[in-house]
Amino acid sequence: MINLLSEQPLLVSIMLAALGGGLIFAWLQSGKKAAAVSGLVCILLIPAAWVLAARLVTDRERIAEIIDSAAKSVAANDHEAAVAVIGDEKTRRMAMSELPNYVFKTAEVNQITSINVDENAIPVTAQVEMTVKADVSAKRGGFNNLRVLRKLELEFEQRGDDWVITAYQHSPVIGPDVSNGL
């Protein structure tokens, strides 16, 4: 329910407006004050739904913020900041061995396909699938300003109030991987 309130305020507003309108219509038909008051309360709750949505941050929204921050760090070629969100030492070393081989002109998240949070896992985990694009050059000169589209799969783990990446894998958006690690 919290996810609905914080991530879908338009849907909540439409439901409140329909319920409020229905209750006011019921008051017009029956003359019962309780229906009118309830309808007005529903309509007055619509702005509250928007305020609540702006203030609540769900796990999914927090993960999306982390991904956006990491993408900006990659685009700025700030490798230390980009890997700061990686909580697994082996995964961090793997990323630090890959990133310095390239110079990024841009790095953007095209689309986050899914963020699946497993609240029943201990600790809480999340699986993320997304597509990214980057304009990248090889530091050793193999290619310059190549537009690369990749599918990226991330595993997150919640540690306290923070989310960290514990594993990642990138592959072509479609077809076999012929990029030699890019």
UniProtKB/TrEMBL annotation:
Can you tell me where the transmembrane regions are? 9-28, 34-53
The UniProt keyword set, sorted, is: Membrane, Transmembrane, Transmembrane helix
Instruction: State the protein's name.
Output: DUF4440 domain-containing protein
The beginning of the lineage is:
Bacteria, Pseudomonadati, Planctomycetota, Planctomycetia, Pirellulales
